[in-house]
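Memo to structure team: turn this sequence into structure tokens by end of day. - J.P.
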Amino acid sequence: MKDNSFTDISDPQALQEAAQEIQENIVQQRINYWMDRFFKKDNKAIGPAGRRRAST
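Reply from structure team:
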């Protein structure tokens, strides 16, 4: 299966160098951004497993 993956690269050294330049804090910021977008921190609206809580 080749969907969403690299199966061959013409310059492995360039890929290695690019990977080594990635900074942990930037990766963490992007993860936090997308987690906030997909999983809002509004605990009143969303209950366990993402199911909406019944109104009381």
